[in-house]
Amino acid sequence: MKNLELFKFDVRFQFRHGFYAAYALVSIVYISLLLLAPTSYIEPLSILIIFTDPSVLGFFFVGGLVLLEKDQAIFSTLFVSPIRIHQYLMSKVLSLTLLAIASSLIIFMVIHQHHINYLPFLIAVMLCSIFFTLLGIFLAVRVDSINMFLYTSPLITIIFYLPLLNFFKLSDSIWLYLLPTQAVLTLLEGTFNSVTVLDYFYGIAVFVPWISLVYLLTYRSFKHFLRTKCFS
To answer: Which ranges of the sequence are coiled-coil (predicted)?
Structure first.
């Protein structure tokens, strides 16, 4: 019940501060671009948009959320209650992942209708959003302003966009398959083609250690932030 209430609080908070409106506007822009694009470019552009949408928006939106909550001193009262850090992190991840999935689904359903494989699509969006949302929280609790967040975010995220080199045939590096974002691209490409059991296994095998690592780092950073900034 406590988890559900926290989840509802996050959804209301995001709606009240225009996150849903922003996602709706961005989705409309994406759909318009895809409708205007030449037929041969629609598939790769769709993959590129979905690849960047949950990651970029999830990363920056959660950064904005956490920094906004810091400015409003929400943490000082929120964590006096029985809410635990794990519950807070899961609520943020689930609420923003739900938003990312809804936005991505709307885009694909309008553009591609029923001519895609939705299972690898949903897995890719979900894993991508979870990973980058956690990464965004990790950075947000370590900086003091939105400007600092924007300045330092490329230093953390740039490495995870390197698999785009493989996607655009600018590289064929096997080392990029160690990054979770390469698994996202593999699954998204499988949305339009066939996906093997090995592709699913690869995606999960790569993401589990990466998500576990970033969750552990985020949890420790958040715990340190609460101890030194809120309750010191």
So the answer is: none
HSE toward the beta carbon, residue 27, CA cutoff 13 A? 20
**DSSP-assigned letter for residue 53:** I
Tokens 């947000």 sit on residue? 140
Neighbours of 4 (CB within 10 A): 9
Find, among 67, 126, 92, the residue nearest to 6 by Cα: 92
Between the alpha carbon of residue 127 and those of residues 43, 48, 67, 163, 169, the distances in Å are: 21, 16, 24, 16, 24
* Exposure of 215 in the CB half-sphere (CA atoms within 13 A): 18
Give me the average pLDDT of each 10-residue run along the chain (232 residues): 77 83 88 92 91 78 80 68 81 89 89 84 93 92 87 89 92 93 94 89 94 95 78 54
What local confidence, expressed as pLDDT, does residue 56 receive? Answer: 74
Alpha-carbon distance of 12 to 15, in angstroms, equals: 5
Q: Which two tokens stand for residue 5?
A: 């209430």
Distance CA 50, CA 157 (A): 16
* Number of domains making up the chain: 1
Backbone angles phi, psi at 186, to 5 degrees: -60, -45
| Token digits of residue 120 | 């690898």
CB 121 within 8 A of CB 188: yes
Give the DSSP per-residue string, 90-110: HHHHHHHHHHHHHHHHHHHHH
pLDDT of 3 reads 75
**Is the full-model pTM beyond 0.85?**
yes
Range of the domain at 87: 2-230
